[in-house]
Amino acid sequence: MTETTAAGTEPQGSPSPDRQPLSRELIIAAAIEHVDAEGVASLTMRGLGKRLGVEAMSLYRYVNGREDLLEGIVDTLLDRLEADPGDRLRPEDGWQAYLQWLAHGVRQVALAHPAAFPLLATRHPGAPWLRPPLRSLRLVEQFLRALEQRGFSDEQAVRGYRSFTTFLLGHLLLETAAHQDAGSGMADMLDGVLGEGGASVPNRDGRTSADGYPTLQRLRPLLTQDHTEEEFERALEGLLDRMDRWVSQ
Known about the structure:
mainly alpha, Arc Repressor Mutant, subunit A, Tetracycline Repressor, domain 2, 2 domains
């Protein structure tokens, strides 16, 4: 049976006869697919309803509008992050191995959903001391416990949480923005917050001529090279070395 509106009419679109019944999980999964393909800025309840083959009104039984939908996307991405390696890593394997494992796990989620990942930074966390991308109570609990099991004091574990999340967020926001198509990415992500004040002339960032900037012109081939994988590894190693020095003091 297809979903019907409150008026009892059939929804617009052409839903498949074997379409799954609507649920919050199904709607949020479709929203993530939409954001992956089209970006956050284009996500609307009407467009999502069309993707699912139902009227937008039907979605409100499961999500309370676009804001709730964005929160659901954040919660789903957080659920995909793991801070507890289970049996894959033991405390005796060391904290460096643990942070390497965790950093690459977070990066995999970010690169799998580069358009949605910035939501972890722009949505308000549940508490002011939660820091993206490890911004859920579950993740922070697992992270702090893992460091303390590996020899960190309370103060060192908290300091490690702050340093590690700062590194991850800064690097991965830049990397995910670079993976977006021209004209999308971080600009779209921040447009709803910053906007352009209703200006009739659009921002032309990225299309400004480099004439008159000889150093930029000369170094442009180097500036446009993609070394994100190498830079991620080098920055992560540098962070671990710094943490090693203050943990061993």
